[in-house]
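Morning - flavin-adenine dinucleotide inputs below, output right after.
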Amino acid sequence: MNFTEQLAGIVGAENVLTGADALRPYLVDWRGRYRGRARCVTRPGSAAEAATIVRLCARTGVAMVPQGGNTSHCGAGIPDESGDSVIISLGRMNAIRAIDPVNNTLIAEAGCILQTLREAASSAGRLFPLSLAAEGSCQLGGNLSTNAGGVHVLHYGNARDLTLGLEAVLPDGEIWDGLRGLRKDNTGYDLKQLFIGAEGTLGIITAAVLKLFPQPRAMVTAWLAVESPQAALDLFGCLRETFGGALTACELVSAVALGLVLTHVHGAHPPFTRNSPWHLLIELGDTEGRNSLRSALEDFLGKMLEKSLLTDAILASGGEQARRLWALRETIGEAQKIEGFSVKHDISVPVSRVAEFIKRADAALEKAFPGVRIVAFGHLGDGNLHYNLSKPGASESTGFIEAQPRVNRIVYDIVDELGGSISAEHGIGQLKRDELLRYKSPVEIRMMRAIKNALDPHGLMNPGKVL
Ligand code: FAD
Ligand code: ZN
């Protein structure tokens, strides 16, 4: 029996895809920047099937590329061009195995679509707070493997913070059952954290125990106009001081980023009649259902207007208006994709240094590439910015791809000087491997390699990614 016939023996012939048409969507990434080739795609229906596939690959020396919803921004789930690898697509493993409302936990399989997971939590009267614009197609396994962030990290933390236990298939095909729903467990190394953020290079995540939270009863969403990133930062400090943990999101949007949405997204309307160079989208949530949250925010914004920390404000009058304000933030990525190529960064710096980063990076880039278009937006409250560069015209933008190494050097050197990270959300994948080597210390790279070699000595798990 050849390799694909053996796979068919494990998962059934209908779950081994081989034809060019069937393979196509698995071989190109969301941005259309990376294309690869593969022997086939296989779709296990259980952890036991996934483990049998991995054992077959380990025995025959076939490289494996785990894939979830294929929304990675750095080509992390796309195989190389050799055509030797097999893509292991987790989409069939989409069961919610259990919900424990008293322990506030949910056990889900890796192929669960994030939105489905959030809906399952909601049906049980709970909140699963991980939320990102790709939630209609990204999967739990991908979210964990990239340690996804999104818009509520400020209050609830990222995927790492939301995971209590994990089940994974190791590169030799053994299943590790670490599905413990414990909030305290100090029995040595926290192994689940190795797989979270590993981008599929250490094994295949098959299920996880996730933290649930009470659903907020009162929610207030507001869109604010501010003069500068420094004003936004000062305002964020005051919001934190006044509302503490009730502040669940604080997103920064530049006028350029908003302009792209208003140009390309059907039904998008400007929040204010007057233009503003910068905007903040904020959300407050309260599980006690206090009606006073809204009036407290109104009072607060009045004071901030008097102090000139903001120049305009809109409080959403209800869920529909809040949804429309959020859409202005969440469609920036899509709007930018329509404009063509851009050099993307998802950097972080200490929150206190966000304004300094923008000032220095903007000035250095404008000097090096006069007329460059800077699309800056993101999670101000986490010190995490999406900082994307392009040329205004689509044809010019395509040529700009050649400038990527120089652009990266300017941006990442400033990030490094400010004590920041070259990837706060999207991970390393194929895109930032060289940058990782450049900016991590030799001792960090040595420890990472030691872990990789210990778990995957033959380098069969998602080769060419991260390290
Ligand atoms: P994939 O792209 O399929 O895979 C990503 C990586 O995980 C690959 O290395 C793959 O090999 C590995 N992998 C997938 N499943 C498994 C598994 N079961 N076991 C082991 N490894 C696995 N990211 C954020 O953090 N915050 C955002 O706000 C955000 N917004 C986005 C908005 C849009 C419109 C898009 C397109 C993407 C956005 N992303 C964001 C990036 C992306 O959606 C996330 O990284 C997401 O978590 C990836 O999930 P996925 O299922 O698509 O993973
Ligand atoms: Zn983001």
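Note: Residues 242 and 300 are 8 Å apart (CA to CA).

O.
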